[in-house]
Amino acid sequence: ARLSSTSALEANKLGYEVGVRINIDVLNAQSQLADTLQKLSRARYDTLLAQLRLKAAAGTLGEEDVLAINALLAER
Q1: Domain boundaries, the chain
Q2: What number of CA atoms fall less than 13 Å from residue 13's CA on the CB side?
């Protein structure tokens, strides 16, 4: 999804530069990319949270699990 939105933005920018697209096309593509990135971030966060909740419910959640999740979140 990220690659598709990024490609669409680049194509619209190029189209604008050569005169076959208008500014609103570029703005819409930028908005779509931002929306895609937000949804990907939310899905990633939800997955990590679900993993923590599952381990907590199973009684296997430990400090190392929380540290691992923190490290994954810090990568961004």
Answers
A1: 2-74
A2: 8
Contacts of 10 (CB under 8 A, 6+ apart): none
Place of tokens 């697209």: 21
Query: Residue holding tokens 């619209």?
Result: 12
Instruction: Note the helical H segments in 1-76.
Output: 2-18, 23-58, 63-74
pTM for the structure as a whole: 0.75
**Any idea what the Cα angle at residue 19 is, between residues 16 and 25, rounded to 5°?**
35
Cβ-based neighbours of 61, under 8 Å, separated by 6 or more: 52, 55
| pLDDT tens for each residue of 11-55 | 999 999 999 999 999 999 999 999 999 999 999 999 999 999 999
Helix (H, G, I), strand (E, B) or coil at 20: coil
